């Protein structure tokens, strides 16, 4: 159409990775930060920051996005994820109030709070994740590796390994929470914690245990 255009670039030397995917390029709603207006929002990209090693978006793509000054990109830490895309832990939804939006953040802490509430209400034996590969959650003392059993809220809460995985993930998300609050001018009341659960793969990267913010 007459109002559509695109840019196509090929990296000459850098190899591409999953961090170059469109899921790793998000944009916030319009925001005002420290007196500066961003009427088209700010670009959000994932990176290995704050670590010195790890995956980063191809320099060609990163430089192109940095050049779009009107949406001044914010670099987040996403290399803790197996796929490494920011849309796996952050997204935005519209509201009808003055703020006009809320930011949703994946939150293992919120998931564990929810499960503990249900456990106290007597729902600890409720079946979870039916039909999904559940060896990690079902595993307990003496369990055969790879053997899948019925998963309940009680079993999820009793799994120390899974709790450790999600404690690590929560720390990664909290790092990004502080960056997003500062760079988008957000308050705690502008953020909604979305219950989520993750597990770490053999490389120590996080995989969403059930559907993420996408």
TrEMBL record:
Q: What is this protein called?
A: PADI2 deiminase
Task: Provide the Gene Ontology terms for cellular component.
Answer: cytoplasm; nucleus
Q: Which organism is it from?
A: Menura novaehollandiae (superb lyrebird)
**Protein-arginine deiminase C-terminal domain mapped to chain residues:** 1-214
| InterPro entries named in the record | PAD, PAD_C
State any single GO MF term: calcium ion binding
Q: Which domain of life is it from?
A: Eukaryota
Entry-linked Gene3D superfamilies:
L-arginine/glycine Amidinotransferase, Chain A
Any Pfam family from its record, for instance, is PAD
């Amino acid at each position: 159409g007459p109002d559509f255009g695109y840019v196509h670039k090929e990296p000459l030397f850098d190899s591409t990775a999953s961090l170059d995917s469109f899921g790793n390029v998000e944009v916030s709603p319009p925001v005002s930060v420290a007196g500066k207006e961003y009427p088209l929002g700010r670009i959000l990209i994932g990176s290995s920051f704050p670590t010195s090693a790890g995956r980063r978006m191809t320099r060609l793509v990163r430089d192109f996005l940095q050049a779009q000054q009107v949406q001044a990109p914010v670099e987040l830490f996403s290399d803790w994820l197996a796929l490494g895309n920011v849309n796996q832990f952050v997204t935005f939804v519209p509201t009808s109030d003055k703020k006009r939006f809320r930011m949703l953040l994946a939150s293992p802490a919120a998931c564990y709070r929810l499960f503990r509430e249900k456990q106290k209400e007597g729902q600890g034996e409720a079946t979870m994740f039916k039909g999904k590969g559940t060896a990690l959650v079902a595993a307990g003392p003496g369990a055969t590796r790879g053997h899948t059993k019925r998963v309940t809220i009680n079993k999820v809460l009793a799994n120390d390994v899974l709790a450790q995985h999600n404690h690590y993930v929560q720390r990664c998300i909290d790092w990004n929470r502080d960056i997003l609050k500062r760079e988008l001018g957000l308050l705690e009341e502008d953020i909604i914690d979305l219950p989520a659960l993750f597990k770490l793969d053999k490389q120590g990267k996080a995989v969403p245990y059930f559907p993420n913010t996408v």
